[in-house]
Specification:
Layout (H helix, E strand, L loop, with lengths): L25 H28 L9 H20 L7 H12 L29 H14 L4 H10 L2 H11 L19 H7 L6 H31 L3 H13 L21 H13 L3 H17 L1 H17 L8 H22 L6 H15 L14 H22 L7 H16 L1 H6 L2 H6 L2 H19 L6 H20 L11 H4 L23 H10 L5 E2 L1 E2 L3 H8 L2 E2 L12 H9 L3 E5 L7 H14 E6 L3 E6 L2
Parallel strand pairs: 1-3, 2-4
Antiparallel strand pairs: 4-6, 5-6
Helix pairs in contact: 1-15, 2-3, 2-15, 4-8, 4-9, 5-8, 6-7, 8-9, 8-10, 9-19, 9-20, 10-11, 10-12, 10-16, 11-12, 11-13, 12-13, 12-14, 12-16, 15-16, 16-19, 19-20, 24-25
């Protein structure tokens, strides 16, 4: 790895720099980690298929031996991989791995576990709705919706992350006819900014209150659909409710200011559980209408958030390919792909017009996938230390691989909704972890771990039922649920990011001002934008109504909407532009440049570049209380 020289030109997102780590050869190590996970997925799938072929040789042997063997192999694999960097552990870990592989062949260990199956139960229909569902849904809504909307809006308004994710791209709609890729960049997705643009106003506080409500509504859609679909999967109500609450707490960080960092929230994958439910049902009960609906949901998911939407579409394609084992024609996968593309193009044309049908837009459209999944952007090196990280990095991926392979291999002989859910959720878990492999922050793992937790909860419940055998006692499910709740609370309290000194999990959520917290008073006053008559006159003289304004300011996302002007910069915030090309393209088409007094630059190279451009191509032509105006030379 010391000799490796990564070619960053291979990244789709070439405009975005890789954040360097203080670890020597960090880029080469990061590439090696990604190669490891590619091999891990490949060899894991091959091993799982091999295990299915060999299972006849293990019939009648104790399940306890398999559990012990698997636990040792999985846990020892972690220090063995760590030994790549610390050779002292390598021989010991390898010895334990080999020895554990022979444990299931021990003949003297008694077989004491016998699975008779679950007690008979009355299944919960997909659209069945009872009073207990209403109570649990109301509880989820109360836990999700914020009570202190103005306070959260004021805190979100200070930061720049909501700008790059959502409010910045929405501000471009102050002007008409602007197209992503040609006029501006949105490197997360297009749905949320487009929807927020329907509520554009020159009242900055009202705009950010709409931003808070948009995120809250997205979280309600995600968590309620998670409860509904997991209810269909688990065939009970308590487990899905607990998991939905766990999903909610896992995405919280800092002092409950997660709305100030929307990319950490479930707004990224709002419709994933709706797609999971449709896909699982489609695999068991084929329907042309359901296939069309699934295509529409996947297309809207891509429109909503490019990265996770493509993940969802890829999972659907993979799951539908499993149906080819039923000797079905390939037309189903082809029809799904074709309809998804048609629906996606229709959404973009409806939102931005036919001008989006260009190569520039295609490049910008794919950039988020490269940026968040492959580019090492804001990436760190994996922490190879035994502990909870072992679960993150080895155990749950191994479980998901084994589950997906075992269900797919036996699909033609056992097609049930439960098995379909297991397959789809396992695929979702594996695919959605691509972002974590790229960035490797613990918080990123937790924000994408919802499917892992659902599959893990199913296996935990199944193991518990296998241990107690067939029974009709109501005490068993109660104890099982209580165990899940205790483990969930313990994990959420223990949750921490080993790379960042930030509070995450339950400790952070308890500070979140939800309706259920009864903290209903406003914790912050509306923010006032200091613009006087001279500032407004200067802008109006230089730019017509609906014109675009190139502004360098420490908070251009506050000033621009107050003036009712769309940004002229390619990226928002302008001072946080990632590359020289972005700054150059922003300056190239501008006839006027507004500089806010006291504004600072994020990067030294940006200051040098802007100063040189102003000196050579612009002249100072006016000023006001807040701004200095530069006009391009004739």
């Amino acid at each position: 790895m010391s000799a490796a020289k990564p070619d960053l030109g291979l990244n789709l997102a070439q405009d975005f720099p890789v954040v360097q780590s203080d670890v020597p050869y960090a880029e080469a190590i990061k590439r090696a980690e990604k190669i490891f996970y590619i091999l891990f997925y490949g060899f894991g799938a091959a091993a799982a298929f091999a295990a299915l072929k060999l299972r006849q040789f293990f019939e009648g042997r104790s399940l306890v031996l398999f559990y012990v063997s698997s636990a040792i192999i999985v846990t020892e694999l972690h220090p063995f991989l760590r030994a790549t960097f610390e050779p002292r552990l390598q021989e010991l870990a390898l010895t334990a791995l080999v020895a554990a592989a022979f444990i299931p062949f021990v003949r003297r260990f008694p077989t004491r576990i016998h699975i008779d199956g679950d007690a008979e139960y009355k299944p919960i229909r997909l659209f069945e709705f009872r009073w207990i569902d209403a109570v649990l849904i109301a509880a989820l809504v109360a836990l999700i919706l914020p009570a202190d909307v103005q306070g959260m809006a004021a805190r979100a308004l200070i930061g720049n992350h909501p700008v790059s994710y959502l409010t910045g791209p929405a501000l471009y709609h102050f002007a008409e006819g602007l197209v992503p890729g040609r006029d501006f960049l949105a490197f997360y997705g297009y749905g949320p900014p487009y929807l927020l643009s329907r509520f554009l106003t020159t009242d900055v506080n009202a705009l950010y209150r709409s931003y808070i409500w948009l995120i809250a509504a997205s979280l309600v859609v995600f968590h309620l659909s998670a409860y509904w679909v997991l209810r269909d999967f688990f065939q009970n109500r308590a487990m899905p409710f607990v998991l939905a609450v766990v999903f909610l707490a896992l995405c919280q960080y800092a002092d409950a200011d997660a709305f100030g960092g929307p990319s950490a929230l479930a707004i990224r994958y709002m419709l994933v559980f709706i797609a999971v439910g449709m896909l699982a049902r489609l695999m068991v009960q084929p329907s042309e209408r359901l296939l069309v609906a699934l295509s529409a949901v996947c297309a809207f998911s891509i429109f909503w958030n490019t990265e996770t939407g493509i993940y969802t579409w890829a999972v659907a394609c993979a799951a539908l390919c499993v149906r080819l084992l039923e000797r079905r024609r390939f037309w189903e996968v082809a029809a799904f792909t074709g309809m998804s593309i048609v629906f996606l193009l229709a959404l973009f044309v409806a939102a931005y017009g036919p001008a989006v049908l260009s190569k520039n837009f295609l490049y910008v459209f794919l950039a988020p996938l490269g940026l968040h999944s492959f580019s090492n952007w804001v990436a760190v090196i994996l922490v190879w230390k035994p502990g909870l990280g072992t679960v993150y990095q080895i155990v749950l991926p191994a479980i998901a691989i084994g589950t997906a392979v075992s269900v797919a291999a036996a699909w033609t002989g056992s097609r049930t909704v439960e098995r379909a859910y297991l397959l789809v959720l396992s695929l979702v878990a594996l695919v959605f972890m691509v972002k974590w492999v790229n960035r490797s922050l613990d918080a990123v793992w937790q924000q994408n771990a919802f499917a892992y937790l659902a599959v893990g909860a199913w296996w935990g419940r199944s193991a518990f039922r296998a241990a107690v055998g067939r029974t009709k006692s109501q005490l068993v499910p109660a104890v099982s649920l209580a165990a899940v709740a205790v483990v969930s609370i313990a994990v959420l309290l223990y949750a921490q990011d080993r790379r960042q000194n930030v509070t995450i999990g339950l400790r952070s959520y308890l500070k979140y001002p939800s309706i259920a917290s009864f903290r209903w008073g406003a914790s912050a006053d509306p923010i006032k934008v200091a613009l006087d008559a001279s500032d407004i006159d200067l802008v109006n003289k230089a730019l017509p109504p609906g014109g675009r304004m190139l502004l360098l300011s420490d908070q251009d996302w506050i000033v621009l909407p107050a003036l009712g002007r769309a940004p002229k910069s390619e990226f928002m915030p302008f001072r946080d532009s990632f590359s020289r090309d972005q700054v150059s393209r922003s300056l190239a088409g501008a006839d006027y440049f507004f500089f806010e007094r006291g504004a600072t630059y994020q990067y030294d190279w940006m200051k040098e570049m802007v100063d040189e451009t102003l000196r050579e191509q612009f002249v100072r032509s006016g000023e006001s209380t807040r701004f200095i105006l530069y006009r391009r030379k004739s």
